[in-house]
Write a structure and sequence with these properties.
single chain, mainly alpha, 5 helices, P-loop_NTPase
């Protein structure tokens, strides 16, 4: 998503009282880069919802996303991680996410 498309999307978002914006995995990098370029644009979002499945790659990508969101000033209480396709036990199926959460709470 180039800067012009992001600007257009952001204008549409600003006109809405309530909106859910679903950014697909293939567009998230461009979206994040543009959001960083537009100062304080992240403040217009109430929450960032990140679904994650139990695969190691998916968990590591989610941790990178969490770190990126934190680095641009998004507070942890605005970020919601959704554990998707859980078979039995979140703690056993999502060890990387759980460890990151415990670490961030101890900092």
């Amino acid at each position: 998503m180039n800067g012009d498309k992001f600007r257009e999307l952001f204008k549409k978002i600003m006109l809405e009282d309530d909106a859910i914006i679903d950014i697909g995995a293939s567009n998230i990098e461009d979206f994040m880069n543009n959001m960083i370029k537009f100062d304080d644009s992240h403040e217009e979002f109430d929450y960032f919802v990140i679904p994650v499945t139990s695969g190691t790659k998916e968990q590591k990508e989610t941790i990178q996303m969490l770190d990126t969101l934190a680095s641009i000033g998004i507070p942890a209480d605005k970020v919601k991680v959704i554990f998707n396709r859980v078979d039995v036990d979140v703690d056993n199926e999502f060890p990387f996410i759980i460890a990151r959460h415990k670490k961030s709470r101890s900092i």
